[in-house]
Amino acid sequence: MEARSCGRWRTSSSRSVAKSLRRIRDAKSTMVSGIRDSSAAVLNAHFRCKLRFTGFKRFFSPHAFAAFFWMVSICALAAFAPSLQPPVFRSTVELVAVDVQVVDREGLPITSLTANQFEVALDGKRRPVVSADLIRYSQSQTRRPRYMMTADAPLAAATDRIFILAVDQASFRTGPARAAAIAARQFIDRLKPDDLVGLYFYPPSMPLDLTHDRVAVRARLNKIVGLLDPPLSEFHLSLSEVVDITSSDGDTMARVVQRECARGDVLCAHQVQAEARAIGGIAELQIAQRFSALSDLLAGLTRLPGRKTLVLLSGGLLATDRPSGHPNMRVQTQALGREAAAANTNLYVLHLDSSFLESYSADSSKINIATAYRDNTVMREGLEALAGAAGGALFRIEAGTPEHAFDRVMRETAAYYLLGLEVADADRDGRPHYINVKVRERGATVRNRPLVVVPKTAR
Fold first, then answer.
1. Residues 16-68: tens digit of each pLDDT
2. What angle do CA 36, 38, 43 make, to 5 degrees?
3. Between the CA of residue 431 and those of 91, 294, 457, what are the distances in Å?
4. pLDDT tens track for 118-133
């Protein structure tokens, strides 16, 4: 009985052990299958390899187990290898383009300069010049189609020289206006076939038509009219006397009172001062209208890509040459200089000085010979300030002989340099900065706009 009991116990124990072993084997198979699937996924993703297991005993043999984990380790390292590579940093410097003209004493472009011959200062601080590219305008014998500068006109990429001939009609009387039209025709005759040109008579503002059609441009020159109407003066005040009296010049005031006022007239001196202030105020209003028309022109040129040259014909622009006095248009003049910089436009001012001819005209009795020289000075003062604010040049033309000035403009605008300027992060504020350009070349004249706007840094 004991034997049978023992036999039954052995049998049941064997069955229990066998069942337990099967459960353990099934669990291990499940674990191995999971590991195999995970490993195969990793290997397939990176090496496209497959693992096959040929049995429980073979898988759990020491050599197979070590080989398996060695392969899994290699696969894992390969999977994460890209993330272990050191980061690569790329540095780029965005340059600011600055265009300058460099000419010799005769106005011929100097074309042999390199970047290290330029010295540029931004707000008084040196900035390195990385590149200096010479841009030359070629001559084309093909006539281009004309297009209008209107609000709806598409932006056109201009590759030719672009000239705008502006005539200040408010600075000429009727006779000198005809001389201005003749001078403008001589300028048109000097243009190259591939030069674009547009006429702009102001005030008031008008559309600008840029074209290669010289015949159409010459026909429009007949529409120039003189709008100058000198102010009436009870005390025969000259232009320079207006400037001097409004700037509290006692000597000029005493001289005018002695000339114009009766002895013992205590009110006359006050009337002289009041008239001088009135004439100065009227002149400022008239100049403001002329500046407004120029501002409209520059606003339109801002939409036109490329470099432009504005040639301004004027009979004079009255302005005070003293710290005080009227008319005083310094703020408006500086504003026009900033607008010219924004429009990528360089300025040439041609002063058609007719004072000598007017002194021998029928109206010469109205001219104060004693102040004629100074009158001419204050009439030129405004033009000098305008040319300086835009980084341009002023040429004086007397007795209807503009040929030398026009030839000079043609020579100087034949080529220019485009400088690549490396600026500091503090310069990138989107505001105008004063720029000074020098060149290490004897006898060279540098023309550039005194202001440059550095775009803000993109974030």
1. 545 554 554 555 455 445 544 544 444 344 434 333 434 434 444 555 545 55
2. 90
3. 25, 22, 12
4. 999 999 999 999 999 9
Specify the pLDDT at position 85.
45
Phi and psi, residue 147, nearest 5°: -145, 155
Q: State the Cα–Cα distance between residues 448 and 101, nearest whole angstrom.
A: 7
CA dist 443 and 402 (Å) reads 24
440/450 Cα distance (integer angstroms) = 19
How far is 115 from 118, CA to CA, in rounded Å?
6
Whether the Cβ atoms of residue 169 and residue 225 lie closer than 8 Å to each other: yes
Q: What angle (nearest 5°) sits at the alpha carbon of residue 209, between those of residues 415 and 447? A: 25
The DSSP code sequence of 340-407 is HHHTTEEEEEEEEE-HHHHTTSTTGGGS-GGGHHHHHHHHHHHHHHHHHHTT-EEEEEETT--HHHHH
Q: Are 348 and 410 in contact (CB under 8 A)?
A: no
Structure token pair of residue 412: 């100087």
- Read off φ and ψ for residue 74, nearest 5 degrees: -65, -45
Predicted pLDDT at 312 = 98
Burial class for 335, CB neighbours closer than 10 Å (0-12, 13-18, 19+) = middle
Measure the CA–CA gap between 45 and 79, rounded to whole angstroms.
Answer: 9
How many Å apart are CA 424 and CA 447, to the nearest integer? 24
CB-based burial, 70-89: b 16+ in 10 Å, e otherwise: ebbeebeeeeeeeeeeeeee
12 pLDDT exceeds 50? Answer: no
Whether domain 138-229+289-413 has CATH 3.40.50.410: the reply is: yes
Name the residue with tokens 């001219």: 367
How do strand 125-127 and strand 118-122 relate by DSSP bridges?
A: antiparallel
Is the whole model's pTM more than 0.85, yes or no?
Answer: no
Is the CB of residue 345 less than 8 Å from the CB of residue 310? yes
Tokens of 398: 């007397």
Q: What are the residue ranges of CATH 3.40.50.410 in the chain?
A: 138-229+289-413
Tokens of 40: 């195969």
